[in-house]
Design brief:
about 220 residues, alpha/beta, Metallo-beta-lactamase, Chain A, six-stranded mixed β-sheet, 6 helices
Length: about 220
């Protein structure tokens, strides 16, 4: 998409177009390779597939985790991480919405269950901080990609939002596990988080164009009280 060509992504971040409704997978640099956020693209379509060290899903819908088993077959050491509330969801073709996409698939159980506030160590002083933001699904999460060059500082690199927040909209709430009330609380949490983060922080959604926190706050209703 042209909008991505204009967007100056940090060199530690690589976008992989998924093909499902302008979907995005993200490769984030780690100490010895990359973590793949939302494994909906098969290994053969990822140039750096041999450098993928872990799989992390923002939530359990098929268009975000549909190729997780292909990755785990490609490299038996790879583990799939997802929020604990999504564990049963990905294993059920009805709940993971793969039937919605015309091909019902039960995905093998996740290897590591994540919790709100947890930090995933990536090495090289790089981390992913887990923010549980239900609404689109029960276990939807956003991930803050950051570095800690020393004990006193945190440098924020990007916020990966999955299907919670897009550049111009929010995720749908009419599929299994969706909740308008939970989405309202999650949006309130993101508004509060915005106050703590730099305004030019890149926001990397699960579909469509990247944006920044400043643009979300300035232009769109869902980031206003």
């Amino acid at each position: 998409m042209a909008s991505f060509n204009k967007f100056n992504l940090d060199p530690r971040i690589k976008r992989i177009p998924e093909g499902y409704g302008y979907g995005n997978a993200w490769l984030l640099a780690a100490e010895n390779g990359y973590v793949l956020i939302d494994p909906a693209v098969p290994p053969e379509k990822v140039e750096l597939k041999d450098q993928v060290m872990a799989l992390i899903a923002t939530h359990g819908h098929y268009d975000h985790v549909g190729k997780a088993d292909a990755w785990r077959s490609f490299n038996r050491k790879l583990e799939l991480m997802i929020h604990e509330a999504e564990a049963d969801m990905i294993m059920d073709k009805t709940l993971n919405a793969s039937l919605f996409f015309g091909r019902g698939i039960d995905i093998a159980k996740p290897d590591i269950l994540l919790r709100d506030g947890q930090e995933i160590e990536l090495g090289n002083n790089l981390f992913l901080r887990v923010f549980h933001t239900p609404g689109h699904t029960r276990g939807s999460c956003c991930f803050l990609y950051l570095s800690k060059p020393d004990a006193e500082r945190e440098n924020y690199i990007a916020l990966i939002t999955g299907d919670t927040v897009f550049a111009t909209d929010i995720g749908r709430m009419d599929l299994a596990g969706g909740s308008e009330e939970q989405m309202r609380r999650s949006l309130a949490r993101l508004r509060k988080l915005r106050e703590e983060l730099p305004s030019d922080l890149p926001v990397l959604p699960g579909h469509g164009s990247a944006t920044t926190l400043e643009k979300l706050q300035k232009n769109y209703w869902f980031m206003h009280h």
